[in-house]
Amino acid sequence: MGNFTAKTELTAISQLPERGRALCRGYIESITIQPGSMSPQFTAVVTDVDKYAPQLSRDRAVEAPRGSHRVRLIWLGRRNVPGIEAGTELRFEGMVARHEGLPTVFNPRYEIIGKPEFQEYPA
Question: In which domain of life is the source organism classified (predicted)?
Answer without folding.
Answer: Bacteria
